[in-house]
Amino acid sequence: MAPTDLSRLELPRACREALAKPRSERIDGHTVPIASNWWNNEVTVAHLPGAPVVGANVTQLSRGDLFMDAANLDAGSEEELLRFLWRVLAWGSGRKLRLNRQRIRAVADDPSSALAALCQALKAAREDPAQAYEALRPRDHNAIAYLGPAFSTKVLYFAGRGALDHPCAILDSQVAATLRDACKWDSLGENEWPTSTYVRYCALLDRWAHEESRRLGRRIGIDEIERWLFRP
């Protein structure tokens, strides 16, 4: 199938209407219930840094929580870096824990390589979606086993700390389904997207965000569009 001409795709009206709601409500306040005890126990059993992943009484995480976590990463602490990863995975998984034990074990098997890939990706994510995506998906393979596009792009997204000009967005199966069905990106495919597709995706959201910024008279982040694509 020939690649879809993304310059012809228009943002659905329902998404444009959703953008009228406050960013703080739709983005920072987007909260997911998590399996707190499971994460704390599994990371501890694996003898990896970053535990406890959440406090004893914490049962949910928000995007705003993870933005604050990312703000603590500049010191380069392995503890904070892996705690950030576990919390991104916990938020992204909710109460569905499929493959997360394998992801933890993959880090435990080669922590130095996992940390190197994460550091490279986080550094690149603020400026270059292609380089950032490649750091975690070199040559269309996972740098960390079982950390595919759906979760690696969450890592890249949260590295932006909620900045309106952050260039990386989450791309997972739910977002992709809306892009295909509601936005008519016919050639997108379902998963295992190559770097070129991720770059086109981020550029499409950036175009839409700039168009909506002019319409609404305020800066729209690409994550505000991704949020609707995730659950229209």
Concise overview:
By secondary structure, the protein is mostly helical. Helix content is 56%, strand content 3%.
Task: Describe what you observe in this structure.
By secondary structure, this protein is mostly helical. It has one domain. It has twelve helices and two strands, in the order ααβαβααααααααα. The chain has helices at 13-18, 23-28, 36-45, 63-70, 78-93, 100-109, 111-125, 129-136, 149-158, 173-181, 195-216, 222-230; strands spanning 31-33, 60-62. It has a two-stranded antiparallel sheet. α4 (63-70) runs antiparallel to α5 (78-93), α8 packs across α9 and α10 (173-181) packs across α12 (222-230). The longest helix has 22 residues, at 195-216. The relative contact order is 0.15. The mean pLDDT is 96.
User: Strand order, biggest sheet?
Assistant: 1-2
Q: Helices and strands: which structural class?
A: mainly alpha
Number of helical runs? 12
Number of strands: 2
How large a portion of the residues is in β-strands, by DSSP E? under 5%
CA distance, first residue to last residue: 26 Å
What can be said about the biggest beta sheet?
Answer: 2 strands, antiparallel
Stretches where pLDDT falls below 50 for ≥5 residues? none
Number of domains: 1
Helicity range? 55-70%
| Averaged pLDDT | 96
Q: What's the SSE pattern?
A: HHEHEHHHHHHHHH
Global shape: globular
